[in-house]
């Protein structure tokens, strides 16, 4: 998109990205009782981020988001494994889940399950994986384009 | 004590390298010499016991649970061989001290030699079949190392390899025979097996066992047609040839046949194979020996023929024949050992072993010539009373005339044996005489590499002792006969019987046969140039060596061809193999088990949207096959993916539909990314045959998979467990989305490993892209 005036794209992106991110978080939280879950939520989040990269370009995005998405992968895996190990503390077999109702300050009467923590691990891993793949391929592309330009 | 005796050479072999490094002034052989001399003395002490019929048995438990114990057993046969090994071993070590200079790698040489000596002692003293086999292979290995001692020479290494291949081939066959024998009798002890010999001879596997065991014995003892490794093994240093390839290792096969003959002897098969091949080897070996020009090659073929003679006598199986056989083992060890040493001296002092270049050495080397005279004439069986070879050859002729085993087959073939024996002996006579006269008499033909002169006295001691033995044995054969040979005949035949060596003054057919050999042999020797051209006809282009080369190269080329034939490197071909195997396996299984069933009981009604989607997907899938453009093919393939996600919607799988939608998008994007960089389809011109094969395979795979799908839908063996998940999803997992509860709760482990897979894939892609060598750095 370099070189073209993509004002419309940038403007719509700023709005749409938040809608997508919100939807992805909804998918993530809804997963236990409705269609959705960590996997789809993660992919959706990654989709929103990719849209940002497409509209604003690498250089800008590098300044704005200073997160290395590769780190998401070990973080996600660690969350999932620790959730599993957590059940050992209560003398349960690996990856035993439990759930309970809590009175939370803002949300009120809520149903919380440890399965969600596991799903959080999935979510992080998927975001990390998708972004790593797309960004590393894209970065490679960009470099090649640059080198072609400089050669000619 | 007995175990320590057998272990001693191995122990000494451990310390040789230390001595080799530590002591530089003294020749290493002097230290080694102690070992065989001590052992020889030790084994001499058994003679008295053994002649009285007392046998020593010592057991050391090795693997008692398998019945494999290191049991050493000293009877007449074992003791004789042990004395032979240590006695000749001492002389050979002494000889090698003068033969090998200190510049050679003496440490290696003596380690191998001691290993061999220990292994050989183990072979002849073991009472356990598997321990015997262990030592047997150890002799093969140490012999391999000794033949390849000068490993810089190509001939040495190829000779070593050849002997290894042939003897190990036989050794493995023998192991098979041993296993069968141990299985049938239920014991691995040789004495135990001999006691139960009946069980083996009457078993239906008997011919098989016999052939396997004899394969081992024949390969080791260089019997026809496995004799081909022995002439090539002459690349070894001469002390090795004298020790291994005349006196000890090649007699291991003889030992084995003798040891087991209490079981096998008396059966027609044993008689036919052993005496038949023995006589064949005798004739062929002596016939071929006349043709050789290299001293050691003559001696090698001569050894082959003498071994054939001993083997034949063991096959005859009469007490006279066995006495003759063991007597000839002793005689052969003495005169052949001395002859090899003489050949080594000639090689050492003149620089060549080619008899076409030698001649007239008598004046230069009178002692060596005298020694050679006794050796060669004894080998020829020349009728002189002071040559032991004559005595045993007489007994050989005598034994070939009378057979006790009077079955029809034996009666049918045995009349021909004396002729074969005489025929073989004529050529033996010719090459023995040739060996002596062409080397030591006449004129010097050629300028020799070294100025010939007499050998140092140290080198002469060993052959002198052996030649003295030749003469002593000839004069007082019965001293040896009673102390050594009669217990040996006792071990082989089961009863001592007639052990008096007396045939040396009988005026019988045997003497006439000897005279015939003498006359005809002389005639043949004098007219040698006239009939020498026969060699271009009879062995002509046929030879065991060529057969061996042909087999080896044939195996190598054949396996190369086979491997190159199917390992084409083309992925398409490998894919075809995999699919063909899949097709064959599945279709055979289906047709054999009758696994294909089709039931229409629980089919759901097909709605029109589903049908439409299916038609579109099928069309798209079919279309991709004919697409000429990659990008178009990918896009059309995308239709299949999105159609699938639509189907998920219709089949009420929202999670799957969502995931499929996104994943399909991502994969199509990635495909586009990759294929954007590829060149356009080169319209590959496939031949019609290739295309037809592809079509047939893909259609059959498709049909088969469809059939499996239908069949597995039609046969429901168990209730599905989905009911349980549907019921307990909320109760146990705390969620209404059953799919998600299964993914994170019921089957959380799968999900955990799947995200691990994703993580690895991402890191893999990252490293592939980032860590590849950059173009600027080049390919290094």
Any overview of this molecule?
The complex is a heterodimer of chains A (152) and B (780). The model of chain A has no long low-confidence stretch (mean pLDDT 81). Chain A has helices spanning 7-30, 38-64, 72-89, 114-151; strands spanning 99-104, 108-113. In chain A, a hairpin with a 3-residue loop joins β1 (99-104) and β2 (108-113). By secondary structure, chain A is mostly helical. A two-stranded antiparallel ribbon of chain A has the order 1-2. Helix content of chain B is 73%, strand content 2%. In chain B, strands 1-2 form a two-stranded antiparallel sheet. In chain B, β1 (56-63) and β2 form a beta hairpin. At the A-B interface, α2, α3 and α4 of A face α29, α32 and α33 of B.
Short descriptors:
heterodimer, A: 152 residues, mainly alpha, two-stranded antiparallel sheet, globular, B: 780 residues, two-stranded antiparallel ribbon, 2 strands
Mind describing the biggest β-sheet of chain A?
2 strands, antiparallel
* Proportion of residues in extended strands of chain A: 5-15%
* Oligomeric state, counting identical vs distinct chains: heterodimer
Q: Give the beta-strand count of chain A.
A: 2
Mean pLDDT of chain A: 81
- Number of E-type strands of chain B: 2
| Largest pleated sheet of chain B | 2 strands, antiparallel
Sequence stretches where pLDDT stays below 50 over 5 or more residues of chain A: none
Our Rg estimate of chain A from Cα atoms comes to: 19 Å
SSE string of chain A, helices as H and strands as E: HHHEEH
Classify the helix fraction of chain B into a percent range.
Answer: over 70%
Please tell me what the overall shape of chain B is.
elongated
Compute the average pLDDT of chain B: 85
Helical segment tally of chain B?
33
């Amino acid at each position: 998109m370099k070189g073209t005036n993509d004002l419309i794209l940038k403007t719509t992106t700023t709005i749409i990205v938040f809608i997508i991110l919100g939807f992805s978080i909804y998918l993530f939280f809804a997963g236990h009782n409705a269609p959705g879950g960590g996997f789809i939520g993660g992919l959706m989040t990654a989709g929103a981020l990719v849209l940002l990269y497409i509209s604003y370009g690498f250089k800008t995005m590098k300044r704005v988001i200073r997160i290395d998405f590769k780190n998401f992968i070990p973080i996600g895996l660690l969350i999932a494994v620790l959730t599993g190990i957590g059940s050992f503390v209560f003398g349960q077999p690996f990856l035993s889940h439990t759930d309970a109702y809590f009175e939370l300050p803002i949300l009120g009467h809520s149903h919380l399950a440890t399965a969600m923590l596991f799903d959080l691990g999935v979510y992080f891993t998927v975001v990390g994986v998708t972004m790593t793949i797309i960004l590393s391929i894209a970065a490679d592309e960009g470099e090649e384009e640059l080198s072609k330009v400089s050669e000619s | 004590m007995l175990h320590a005796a057998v272990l001693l050479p191995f122990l000494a072999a451990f310390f040789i390298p230390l001595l080799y490094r530590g002591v530089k002034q003294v020749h290493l052989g002097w230290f080694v010499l102690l070992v065989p001399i001590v052992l020889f003395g030790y084994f001499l002490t058994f003679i008295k016991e053994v002649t009285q019929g007392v046998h020593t048995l010592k057991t050391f438990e090795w693997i008692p649970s398998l019945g494999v114990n290191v049991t050493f057993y000293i009877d007449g046969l074992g003791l004789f061989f042990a004395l032979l090994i240590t006695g000749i071993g001492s002389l050979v070590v002494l000889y090698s001290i003068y033969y090998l200079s200190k510049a050679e790698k003496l440490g290696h040489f003596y380690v191998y030699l001691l290993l061999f000596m220990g292994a050989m002692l183990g072979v002849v003293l073991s009472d356990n079949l598997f321990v015997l086999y262990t030592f047997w292979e150890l002799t093969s290995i140490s012999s391999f190392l000794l033949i390849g001692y000068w490993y810089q020479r190509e001939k040495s290494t190829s000779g070593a390899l050849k002997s290894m291949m042939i003897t190990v081939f036989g050794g493995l066959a023998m192991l098979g025979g041993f296993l069968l024998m141990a299985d049938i009798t239920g014991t691995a002890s040789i004495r135990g097996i001999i006691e139960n010999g009946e069980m083996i001879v009457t078993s239906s596997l008997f011919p098989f066992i016999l052939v396997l065991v004899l394969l081992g014995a024949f390969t080791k003892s260089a019997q026809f047609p496995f004799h081909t490794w022995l002439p090539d093994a002459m690349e070894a240093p001469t002390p090795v040839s004298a020790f291994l390839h005349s006196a000890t290792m090649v007699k291991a096969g003889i030992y084995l046949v003798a040891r087991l003959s209490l079981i096998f002897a008396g059966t027609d098969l044993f008689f036919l194979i052993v005496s038949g091949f023995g006589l064949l080897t005798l004739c062929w070996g002596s016939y071929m020996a006349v043709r050789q020009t290299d001293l050691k090659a003559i001696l090698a073929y001569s050894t082959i023929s003498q071994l054939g003679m001993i083997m034949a006598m063991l096959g005859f199986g009469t007490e006279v024949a066995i006495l003759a056989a063991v007597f000839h083992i002793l005689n052969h060890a003495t005169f052949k050992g001395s002859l090899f040493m003489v050949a080594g001296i000639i090689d050492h002092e003149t620089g060549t072993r080619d008899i076409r270049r030698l001649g007239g050495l008598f004046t230069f080397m009178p002692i060596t010539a005298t020694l050679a005279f006794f050796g060669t004439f004894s080998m020829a069986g020349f009728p002189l009373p002071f040559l032991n070879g004559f005595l045993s050859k007489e007994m050989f002729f005598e034994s070939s005339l009378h057979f006790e085993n009077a079955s029809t087959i034996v009666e049918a073939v045995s009349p021909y044996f004396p002729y074969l024996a005489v025929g073989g002996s004529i050529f033996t006579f010719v090459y023995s005489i040739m060996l002596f006269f062409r080397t030591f008499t006449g004129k010097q033909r050629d300028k020799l590499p070294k100025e010939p002169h007499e050998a140092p006295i140290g080198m002469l001691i060993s052959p002198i002792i052996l030649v003295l033995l030749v003469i002593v044995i000839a004069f007082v054969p019965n001293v040896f006969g009673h102390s050594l040979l009669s217990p040996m005949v006792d071990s082989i035949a089961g009863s001592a019987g007639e052990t008096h060596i007396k045939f040396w003054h009988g005026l019988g057919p045997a003497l006439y046969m000897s005279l015939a050999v003498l006359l005809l042999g002389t005639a043949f020797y004098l007219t040698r140039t006239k009939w020498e051209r026969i060699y271009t006809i009879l062995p002509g282009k046929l030879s065991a060596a060529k057969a061996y080369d042909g087999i080896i190269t044939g195996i190598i080329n054949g396996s190369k061809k086979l491997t190159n034939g199917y390992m084409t490197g083309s992925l398409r071909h490998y894919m075809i193999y995999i699919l063909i195997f899949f097709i064959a396996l599945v279709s055979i299984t289906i047709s054999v088990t009758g696994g294909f069933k089709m039931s229409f009981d629980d089919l759901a009604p097909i709605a029109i949207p589903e049908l439409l989607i299916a038609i579109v997907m099928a069309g798209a899938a079919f279309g991709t096959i004919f697409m000429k453009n990659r990008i178009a093919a990918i896009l059309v393939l995308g239709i299949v993916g999105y159609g699938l996600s639509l189907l998920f919607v219709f089949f009420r799988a929202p999670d799957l539909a969502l995931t499929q939608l996104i994943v399909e998008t991502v994969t199509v994007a990635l495909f586009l990314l990759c294929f954007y960089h590829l060149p356009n389809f080169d319209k590959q011109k496939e031949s019609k045959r290739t295309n037809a094969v592809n079509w047939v395979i893909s259609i059959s795979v498709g049909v088969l998979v469809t059939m499996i799908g239908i069949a597995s839908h039609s046969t429901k063996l168990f209730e599905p467990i989905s009911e349980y998940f549907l019921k307990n999803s909320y109760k146990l997992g705390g969620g209404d989305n059953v799919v998600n509860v299964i993914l994170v709760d019921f089957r959380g482990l799968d999900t955990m490993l799947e995200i691990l897979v994703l993580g690895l894939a991402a890191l893999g892609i990252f490293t592939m892209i980032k860590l590849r060598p950059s173009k600027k750095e080049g390919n290094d």
